[in-house]
Structure prediction request, 165 residues.
Amino acid sequence: MTKRALVALFACLMVAVAAGCGGGGDSTSSGGESSEASGSAPTKAAFVKEADALCRKADDELNEEVESYAKENGIPLGKEPTKPQLEEIYKEVVLPNVARQGEEIDALTAPEGDEDEVGEIVAALDQGVEEGEADPSGLVEGKNPLEDASSKATAYGLKVCGSEG
Prediction:
């Protein structure tokens, strides 16, 4: 399995609020102000733009992290990893990346009136990460403990976070 295919496999299983699968992009919110830096409640559109930028950045980082981890641990990028290798990569690389994304989104100031909805997205993501850590073999077998977070994220309007491809 090539690096790209390996990463695509991981990314598809990480369909969650903070597991966006997208290309690189601008990481500033509309108006150029970060809701994290300003502390004031952003508009929903500004929040979505900023959260999606975090997901794009994390996806780019994940590509590098998977390749680096595989090289450091003797996991060949040119062939299909074994089930134990996949479980190891999920546990050591993928899930920590997703958890960091959740922390970063949680640190953003939610739009006024949307605090509970954003909190539910982050809570669902946290629960999914915990379930994945408890049973990484389920991820390898195609179970998606992040499905609830993904559904909540896309219903909220996030376009990169919680989406595939």
In short: The two ends are 18 Å apart (CA to CA). Confidence is low (pLDDT under 50) at residues 1-37.
